[in-house]
Write a structure and sequence with these properties.
By secondary structure, this protein is of the alpha+beta class. The protein is built from five helices and seven strands, in the order βααβαββαβββα. The chain is about 40% helix and about 20% strand.
Length: about 140
């Protein structure tokens, strides 16, 4: 999968797709394949560590933050629930990296969504979802 720089400014998410960062993040989670690996580079809020524990994996069980989380529909629903109540939590995610179940890079975000990279397939899915909403 080819990675492309889609955004390089915070406000481009809204101008390109007319979505808030929270809406964009939840859409990405919805569209990535089940079984994908979500890495927060141990920057997730403490509240998330607790609420997302059922989807977490730790190579060192004494470690508080997860190495990664495994995506399924229940994880997406839990994230939606969390972000409805505390959307500002998304600002604590400095680095976000998502790979497919097979290990291919799907999505990457640096510096609190300042710079976002995503594979072409995900970009097409996002545009399709946006167009479906407009129809």
């Amino acid at each position: 999968m080819k990675f492309r720089n889609l955004f390089n400014k915070d406000n481009e998410i809204q101008s390109k797709f007319n979505l808030s960062e929270v809406e964009f993040f939840l859409l990405v989670l919805k569209l990535i394949p089940d079984g994908s690996y979500i890495f927060f580079d141990q920057t997730e809020p403490d509240y998330w560590v607790i609420r997302l524990h059922p989807w977490s994996y730790r190579s060192d069980l004494s470690q508080y933050e997860a190495d990664y989380y495994i995506k399924d529909e229940d994880l997406v629903n839990r994230m939606r629930e969390i972000l409805m109540h505390t959307p500002q939590d998304l600002n604590e995610i400095h680095h976000l990296y998502i790979t497919s179940p097979g290990g291919e890079s799907i999505f990457s975000s640096f510096d609190n969504f300042e710079v976002i990279y995503l594979c072409e397939e995900l970009k097409i899915k996002i545009k399709s979802q946006i167009n479906d909403r407009l129809d």
